[in-house]
C-alpha cells in the first residue's frame, strides 16, 4: 500500500480521478462511498441497487449535493452525467459493469450468484473487479481470476476484509523469508451451528445488522468462507475438516500452532484456522531456522520461539476497499486472489433434517451452514459448494442434520450464472 496516497494525490493534481462503479448500497457500500468521497483521486461515479433511495441517501451522507445525483437507467444519460462530474444512481447493475467511463467495479452485494454475474460482466467489459463477495470468490474465483488475467484486468478481493488483511501479513512474512506456519483470524462469537435469522434476530436488532448476516457469522459459515479464500490464495489447507477453532489469546498463539508431537495442537504445518479470543484481529504464525534471526526476534520481544505471531488487531472492512481499487488501477495488482486455484472448498451441511422436495434457502438461513474441507476431500464426497445454494436448489433426497449435502442430493429448478461458471471451472481445472 506504500505511496498509494501520493499516487492518488498526483492523479487529482493532474485533474483526473479513478472512476468507481459500485453494485450494492447496503452497509458496506454506503461506508465505502463516504470514505472515497474523503479521498483524493477517486470517486464512486455510479452505484446500482434495487432501491434507488439507498443510493441517493448514501451519496447525500457522503456530502454530495443532491443536485449532482442523476437517477437513470439510460446508458447515454449516465455517461453524460459522469463526464459532467455528476454521480449516477441506477437499478441496473449491467449499466455499472458496461459504462465506458467506469475504471473499476466493486461488488458489495453479498449474494454469490449476483457477485458472479457482476465479476463476469466486468471482466468481459475489460474492467478491474474488486470483490466484497467472498462467497462468490471461493466458488468460482479461480475461473474469474484466470479470465481476468487473460483479459489484462485485475480480479481481486478487498483490503479490510479479513482474507485481504491476512494476505498482507503473509506477503510481509514471506517476502522476508520467514516460514509461515499458519494463517488465521479471530471469531467474534461462539460457534453455534444451529444459528438462524430467528435465533439471531434480537442480537441483530441491538447491533443494527441483518439477522441473516449475523447468523452466517454465528454458525461459522463466514469464517469458513474467509479462510477458504486464504487457502486458495496461499495453498494453505485446513488441518482438519472445519478447522480446529482453538481458544486462546494472542500471546498463546505461537504455542498453540505447533505440531502435536512437539507439544502443540497441529497435525501439520501450512494451515488455515480460526481462534476464539483474538477477534477482531488476524494473524500469521511464523518461524525461522536461522540462529541469528531467532536471537534478534527474542531481542525484539517477539517471544522465545520457535514460533512467533504477527497480529493485526483490526480490519476496516469496506472502508479499506478503496486501497484495493487504487492498487488494481494504479499498479495492476490484486490485494488477494486465488493464485493457487481451488485448494479449499466450503461445502453445504444440513442445519437440520432436510426432506425430499424442500427448497434450500441461502447463507445465514435455516437450512444449511458451511464447512471448510480440502478441495480434494470435497471432490471425493461430490460435495455441494455452499456458494451454489439458493432458493432454486431443491432436495431430491432426505438427509440428516449435520450431513454434507452432495450434488446427487439436489436438483436445480432454475439455472443460474454461478452454477454455469462453476461447471466451466470444474471442466477447466
Automatic annotation (TrEMBL):
Protein name in the entry:
NAD(P)-dependent oxidoreductase
Q: Which InterPro entries match?
A: Asp/hSer_DH_NAD-bd, DRL_cat, NAD(P)-bd_dom_sf, SAF
Point out the signal peptide segment. none
Which molecular-function annotation in GO is an example for this chain? oxidoreductase activity
Residues of the SAF domain: 345-411
The UniProt entry, under PANTHER family, shows: SAF DOMAIN PROTEIN, STRU PROTEIN
Q: Which organism is it from?
A: Ornithinibacillus caprae
Q: Which domain of life is it from?
A: Bacteria
Amino acid at each position: 500500500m506504500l505511496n498509494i496516497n501520493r499516487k492518488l494525490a498526483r492523479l487529482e493534481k493532474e485533474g483526473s480521478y479513478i472512476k468507481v462503479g459500485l453494485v450494492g448500497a447496503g452497509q458496506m457500500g454506503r461506508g465505502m462511498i463516504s470514505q472515497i468521497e474523503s479521498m483524493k483521486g477517486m470517486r464512486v461515479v455510479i452505484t446500482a441497487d434495487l432501491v434507488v433511495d439507498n443510493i441517493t441517501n448514501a451519496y447525500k451522507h457522503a456530502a454530495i449535493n443532491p443536485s449532482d445525483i442523476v437517477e437513470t437507467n439510460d446508458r447515454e444519460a449516465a455517461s453524460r452525467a459522469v463526464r459532467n462530474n455528476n454521480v449516477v444512481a441506477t437499478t441496473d447493475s449491467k449499466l455499472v459493469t458496461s459504462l465506458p467511463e467506469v475504471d473499476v467495479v466493486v461488488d458489495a452485494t453479498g449474494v454469490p450468484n449476483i457477485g458472479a454475474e457482476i465479476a463476469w460482466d466486468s471482466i468481459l467489459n475489460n474492467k478491474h473487479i474488486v470483490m466484497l463477495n467472498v462467497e462468490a470468490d471461493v466458488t468460482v474465483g479461480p475461473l474469474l481470476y484466470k479470465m481476468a488475467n487473460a483479459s489484462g484486468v485485475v480480479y481481486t478481493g478487498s483490503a479490510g476484509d479479513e482474507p485481504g488483511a491476512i494476505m498482507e501479513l503473509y506477503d510481509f512474512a514471506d517476502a522476508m523469508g520467514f516460514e509461515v506456519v499458519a494463517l488465521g483470524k479471530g471469531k467474534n462469537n461462539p460457534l453455534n451451528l444451529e444459528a438462524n435469522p430467528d435465533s439471531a434476530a434480537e442480537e441483530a436488532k441491538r447491533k443494527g445488522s441483518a439477522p441473516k448476516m449475523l447468523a452466517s457469522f454465528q454458525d461459522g459459515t463466514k469464517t469458513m468462507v474467509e479462510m477458504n479464500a486464504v487457502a486458495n490464495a496461499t495453498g494453505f489447507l485446513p488441518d482438519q475438516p472445519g478447522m480446529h477453532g482453538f481458544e486462546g489469546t494472542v500471546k498463546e498463539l505461537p504455542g498453540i500452532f505447533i505440531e502435536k508431537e512437539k507439544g502443540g495442537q497441529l497435525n501439520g504445518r501450512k494451515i488455515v484456522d480460526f481462534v476464539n479470543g483474538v477477534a477482531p484481529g488476524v494473524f500469521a504464525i511464523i518461524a525461522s531456522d536461522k540462529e541469528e534471526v531467532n536471537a534478534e526476534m527474542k531481542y525484539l520481544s517477539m517471544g522465545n520461539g520457535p514460533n512467533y505471531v504477527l497480529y493485526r488487531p483490526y480490519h476496516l472492512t469496506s472502508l479499506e476497499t478503496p486501497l484495493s481499487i487504487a492498487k488494481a488501477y494504479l499498479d495492476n495488482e490484486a490485494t488477494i486472489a486465488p493464485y493457487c486455484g481451488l485448494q479449499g472448498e466450503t461445502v453445504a451441511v444440513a442445519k437440520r433434517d432436510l426432506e425430499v422436495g424442500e427448497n434450500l434457502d441461502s447463507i445465514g438461513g435455516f437450512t444449511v451452514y458451511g464447512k471448510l474441507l480440502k478441495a480434494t476431500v470435497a471432490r471425493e464426497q461430490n460435495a455441494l459448494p455452499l456458494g451454489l445454494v439458493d432458493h432454486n436448489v431443491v432436495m431430491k433426497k432426505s438427509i440428516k442434520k449435520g450431513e454434507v449435502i452432495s450434488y446427487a442430493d439436489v436438483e436445480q429448478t432454475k439455472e443460474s450464472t454461478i452454477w454455469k461458471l462453476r461447471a466451466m471451472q470444474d471442466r477447466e481445472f
